[in-house]
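Fig. S4 source data, part A: sequence.
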Amino acid sequence: MSTLTEIEEYDQALKDLRDFEENNPNVIEKYRQLIEEYNIKREAAEKAVRAEGISCGDFDRYQEVTKIDGEGLYNELGREEFLKVGTIKTKNEFKVDAKRAKMAVSRGIIDQDTLNAYMTKEGRYHVPKAVVLP
């Protein structure tokens, strides 16, 4: 099997990244420290503005949304009264287990051509993770 151009380019990019990290350990470590400190301070600042319910600096409280616990209100009011102020939605989800479908073919419940018309195959891959600075 020949190598894809994209794989060759990926391999080179990975080599370049590892070379940079190896040749600049102090820069990488300092950057990680700065990012960690930033994230700790950002989280604390976010908690503070949310607790106060205000906008401040880069933290913009741009909207206020009213939310109601529908299930709790339903339990409190009962179905009939709840439907005067709310709705109940049911989501249909159709799933078919591939093994059970193949067994259904062997039992004559559905024919193979019908199953084939609704069946697709998709590949699953193990792939390298994206590089993300902490």
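Fig. S4 source data, part B ends here. Helices lie at 5-23, 25-52, 70-77, 79-82, 98-106, 112-118.
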